[in-house]
Design a protein that fits this description.
Layout (H helix, E strand, L loop, with lengths): L4 H54 L3 E3 L4 E7 L5 E3 L10 E4 L19 E8 L10 E10 L2 E9 L3 H7 L12 H4 L6 E8 L12 E9 L8 E5 L12 E10 L2 E10 L5 H6 L6 E2 L1
Antiparallel strand pairs: 1-2, 2-11, 3-10, 4-9, 5-8, 5-10, 6-7, 6-9, 7-13, 11-12
C-alpha cells in the first residue's frame, strides 16, 4: 500500500514549484510590460511638449520623426463668448480683442465685433458680496476719425462700498441673470451689461480694438473673468483670441496629445496706468 508514495509526493512538490515559478515569471513579464509602457508614455509626452515648444518659437507647425511629434497651428474660431485663460488678482489686467488679427499680427479695424453691448462677468461662484468682493474697471480701446481713443467704466457689486468710499464706481445693471447672461463653462459671482451707446461707453464707432479688464479689492485672490455678447445672437461674435497649437507625440505604442492656446500679445499693463484719468482720454 505504501509503494509509490514518494513519487506522488515528489510530483506534488514539483507541481507547486512549477506553479510558483510560472506565477513569478508572469508577474515579471507584466511588470516589464508596464514599465515599458510607462516609459513610452513619458517619452511620448516629452515629444508632444517638444512640438509645442517648436511651434511657439517658429510660429508654425511641423513634423519631426526623430523626436516623434506632429504639431499643427491654427487660428481659434470666433465665438459669442470669451473666458480669460488666466484668473486675475487685484490690479492685474486681462485683454479681450474685439478686432481680428491680420497675417502680419496687426489689428484689422475694418472687421470688428459688431454688437452694441457686452455682458461682463467676474468672480468665483459663491464669492460673498463683502469688502473683499472684486470690483472691475473696463477700458474700451477704439479707433475713431484716425485717432486712437479710450473709454473707461468701473463697476462695484458692493453698493455700500461705493457710498462709503466714494470710489465713483457704478452699480451693476439691474435684471442681469448670472446663469444665462454669463459665458458658459464657468460659474461667476457677479456680472453687468455694458452698452456702447450713451448709457455705457458712449461710443458710436464700429472700429473697436479691445477691452482691458482689471479687478480691484480682491487682493491676492485670483478670480475668473469672462465676456459674452449682450444680444445673445450668434452674429455678434468675438474674433479669435489667439492660435491653437496641437502637438501629438508618439513613442512605441504610446501616443500623447498636448493642446495649448497661444494668446495674442497685448499692451503692457503700465500702458493703461500711464493713460489713467477720471474721464475719457484721446491719445
Amino acid at each position: 500500500m505504501r509503494r509509490g508514495q514518494a513519487l506522488i509526493i515528489i510530483l506534488l512538490i514539483l507541481a507547486v514549484i512549477t506553479t510558483i515559478g510560472l506565477s513569478v515569471a508572469s508577474r515579471s513579464v507584466t511588470e516589464v510590460s508596464t514599465s515599458v509602457t510607462s516609459d513610452e508614455g513619458t517619452r511620448a509626452l516629452s515629444a508632444a511638449e517638444s512640438g509645442v515648444e517648436y511651434a511657439l518659437s517658429m510660429g508654425s507647425g511641423g513634423v519631426n520623426s526623430d523626436i516623434g511629434y506632429t504639431v499643427t497651428v491654427e487660428s481659434q474660431n470666433s465665438s459669442a463668448q470669451v473666458i480669460l485663460t488666466d484668473k486675475l488678482k487685484a490690479g492685474e489686467i486681462g485683454t479681450v480683442f474685439l478686432a481680428p488679427h491680420s497675417s502680419n499680427g496687426m489689428l484689422d479695424t475694418t472687421s470688428t465685433y459688431n454688437g452694441n453691448k457686452f455682458n461682463v462677468c467676474w468672480g468665483k461662484s459663491g464669492t460673498p458680496n463683502d469688502n473683499s468682493a472684486p470690483a472691475i474697471e473696463v477700458d474700451l480701446y477704439y479707433f475713431e476719425e484716425n485717432v486712437y481713443k479710450i473709454s473707461r467704466l468701473a463697476y462695484d457689486p458692493n453698493s455700500s462700498r461705493i457710498t462709503s468710499s466714494n470710489n465713483n464706481f457704478s452699480t451693476l445693471s439691474s435684471g442681469f441673470n448670472i446663469s444665462s447672461d454669463c459665458p458658459s463653462g464657468s460659474a461667476f459671482a457677479f456680472g453687468t451689461q455694458i452698452g456702447l451707446n450713451a448709457n455705457g461707453f458712449g461710443v458710436s464707432t464700429n472700429n473697436l480694438l479691445f477691452l482691458q479688464i482689471r479687478p480691484f479689492y480682491n487682493g491676492d485672490v485670483a478670480h475668473v473673468v469672462g465676456v459674452k455678447n449682450g444680444t445673445g445672437g450668434g452674429g455678434d461674435s468675438f474674433p479669435a483670441q489667439g492660435t491653437i497649437i496641437t502637438s501629438t507625440g508618439t513613442a512605441g505604442v504610446s501616443t500623447k496629445k498636448v493642446q495649448v492656446l497661444q494668446t495674442y500679445g497685448a499692451p503692457y499693463s503700465i500702458f493703461t496706468s500711464a493713460v489713467f484719468s477720471g474721464s475719457d482720454l484721446v491719445k
